[in-house]
Amino acid sequence: MKAISRRSFAKQLSKGAGAAALASHLPLACAMGHSTEKKKLGVALVGLGSYSTYQLAPALQDTEHCYLAGIVTGTPEKEKVWARKYNIPEKNIFNYSNFDRIKENNDIDIVYVVLPNSMHAEFSIRAARAGKHVICEKPMAISVTECDEIIDACKQAGVKLGMGYRLHSEPYTKAVKRFVREKTFGDVLYVSADAAYRSTSNPQQWRLNRKLSGGGALVNMGVYAIQSAIYATGQNPISVSAQEFSTRPEYFKDTDETITAQFEFPGGAVANIMTSHNVRANRLYATCTNGWFELDPASTYIPLSGRTSNGPLDFEQESQQKLQMDDFAKHILHDAPNFAPGEMGKRDMVIVEAIYASIAQGGAKQQLKFEAGYGMGEL
Ligand code: NAD
User: Fold this and answer.
1) The predicted structure's pLDDT at residue 12
2) Ligand 1: which of 45, 48, 50 to mutate, most ligand atoms within 8 Å of CB?
3) Which secondary structure element, helix H or strand E, spans residue 349, and what is its range?
4) Which one of the listed residues 138, 177, 330, 346 is annotated catalytic?
5) Which of 112, 224, 231, 356 is the catalytic position?
6) Same structural domain for residues 134 and 184?
7) 91 assigned to active site
8) Which residue from 86, 114, 159, 245 could staple onto 258, CB 3.0 to 4.6 Å apart?
9) Percent of the chain scored above 70 by pLDDT?
């Protein structure tokens, strides 16, 4: 049975056009709003690489509002291994060709796309058309156009869309958002955000292949630095200027190695970000009118760590992926907030494209225009 709460179903019906879309795209059980009885939603992971194997699947053993119900893989040998390990019935196992048949499968409510970046749009759209809610990994896609296509497909199908931005469910990041919202340290004046690691093995990997990745460090770790700058100021930027540095061109043949970028925000705050596949860095620092706060590390899985001008931060550590997937399931089941909606993924891709445009123009400042609060998610 498809999961959708009565409240969100009624909301969608009241949108008129949405009602027609719902009726034509969603399974009858869903359109009849029967699924409120479902307590835990079934998740199918698409792409069983390292993130699915070592983070998402283990986290789905502990989630309270969703569970690992199915898999979609292009590697037949993985089918048996995963089926045995996670007790997945054969009917819930798909490959990239027969994936669209997932539409008829009532165990699966959420499709989580964990493929190389250039495949995010195709599989998110196919999942939406099959009437499944979608979680899309970061970066959302390899262009703003593709982000729009994903958002439109989900809207048309009346399904929910969330980004795999796990930090929005994580307590240290939530504290940063709270400091900004409550002006705990006054107004934020300057943010420095770095997200980077050093890549040395396997120059053939898809992350260094532009066709599959859509870019280098910027679309991989850079997205975290962009996110940090935004939630540490609580605003979308109004301009960006950027620079690219290449010190190992023999290794980074096809994608960017190191990028710095400077943002201006409407309230007067400024930010500098650095991302790289050549150096290690993982930090968020904000200085404010009455103090400062810092996370270091700021975007690793666990444990994050933080301190402020008032003293150290100390929160209970839990799997970020568990918290993230449960938050999204609660959004579907109980109309709880969507902390990382599709619009947030699109906004970040608008910024990524502006950074590449600035670099192409020798660092020229690019103006950014977002509607107030666009893509901010629930604060
Ligand atoms: P990975 O290389 O470990 O796995 C990629 C999977 O895609 C593999 O199962 C591979 O078989 C499959 N695949 C299908 N077609 C492919 C092709 N043409 N080339 C290469 N692989 C192909 O990658 P990963 O680390 O699991 O990353 C997957 C996605 O998850 C990426 O978009 C990445 O940005 C994202 N990710 C997010 C986080 C996070 O913290 N949110 C962490 C890691 C990865």
Assistant:
1) 36
2) 50
3) helix 342-360
4) 138
5) 224
6) no
7) no
8) 245
9) 90
Question: Parallel, antiparallel, or unpaired: how do β-strands 270-276 and 258-264 relate?
Answer: antiparallel
Q: Whose CA is nearest to atom 11 of ligand 1?
A: 49
Do 361 and 347 lie in one domain? The reply is yes
Report how far residue 315's alpha carbon sits from residue 93's, in angstroms, rounded to the nearest whole number.
38
Give residue 378's pLDDT band: very low, low, confident or very high (50, 70, 90).
confident
Is any ligand 1 atom within 6 A of the Cβ of residue 75? yes
* Ligand 1 pocket member 315 (CB < 6 A): no
Nearest one of 164, 153, 81 to 115, comparing CA atoms: 164
Q: DSSP secondary-structure letter at 96?
A: T
Query: SS3 of 33, please?
Result: coil
- Is the same domain home to 140 and 153? yes
153 close to ligand 1 (CB < 6 Angstrom): no
CA distance 68 to 159: 19
pLDDT band at 258 (very low <50, low <70, confident <90, very high): very high
Residue 164 alpha carbon, nearest atom of ligand 1: 41
Within this chain, do residues 307 and 174 fall inside the same structural domain, yes or no? yes
How many distinct structural domains can be found in the chain? 2
Is 224 one of the annotated active-site residues of the chain? yes
Model pTM score: 0.92
Residue 26, domain member (yes or no): no
How many whole angstroms separate alpha carbon 286 and alpha carbon 359?
Answer: 25
89: phi then psi, degrees, rounded to nearest 5? -70, 155
Do residues 206 and 346 both lie within one domain?
yes
| Predicted pLDDT of residue 19 | 32
Distance CA 218, CA 289 (A): 30
**Which has more confidence, 303 or 65?**
65
Q: Are 132 and 117 in contact (CB under 8 A)?
A: no
Where in the sequence is the domain holding 275, given as residue range(s)? 167-315+341-367
DSSP state of 143: S
74 and 140 inside one domain: yes
Quote the mean pLDDT of the chain: 91
